[in-house]
Amino acid sequence: TAMTDFDISKLMSSNELHPKEVTTCGMTFTVYVRRLPAVDLRKFQSETRSDDREEVATAGFNALVKSIRTEDGKPFATREQYVKMDAEAVSALLAVFTAVNVAKRDDDLGNA
């Protein structure tokens, strides 16, 4: 396919929801994970490497709010709710977030 015929829209982030089963705190439930656009994912990756522990903690909560959804696409929980969740639950949700939002490091783009 010639580049002039290439549909760039096929490379854009979508709001497609990926169902993921989560087992934590003695229960199993399904959440729907939205892949973050590159700008949000890079911001998350950058913040998680900060020397500021508060920034690192905030990065995870913000990413969960943007990415973890209910079946109808609404946020699964608010930032305030994530902050008060059991650490095991937050870890389980971050695991499904990471499974859907995998992006390899790209040193050329400064997200090392």
Describe the structure.
This protein is of the alpha+beta class and 112 residues long. It has four helices and three strands; from the N terminus they run E-E-H-H-E-H-H. It has helices at residues 38-48, 53-67, 79-84, 87-100; strands at 17-24, 27-34, 68-69. A three-stranded antiparallel β-sheet has the order 1-2-3.
Helix count from the secondary structure assignment: 4
CA-atom Rg in angstroms: 16 Å
Number of strands: 3
Report strand %: 15-25%
H/E topology pattern: EEHHEHH
Mean pLDDT: 86
Please outline the major beta sheet: 3 strands, antiparallel
What portion of residues is helical? 40-55%
**Largest sheet strand order:** 1-2-3
First and last CA, distance = 33 Å
Question: What general outline do the C-alpha atoms trace?
Answer: globular
Low-confidence stretches: 108-112
Q: Topology of this structure?
A:
Layout: E1 17-24, E2 27-34, H1 38-48, H2 53-67, E3 68-69, H3 79-84, H4 87-100
Q: What are the defining features of this structure?
A:
globular, 112 residues, alpha+beta, single chain, three-stranded antiparallel β-sheet
Question: In brief, what are we looking at here?
Answer:
With 112 residues, the protein is of the alpha+beta class. It has 4 helices and 3 strands; from the N terminus they run E-E-H-H-E-H-H. Helix 1 packs antiparallel against helix 2.
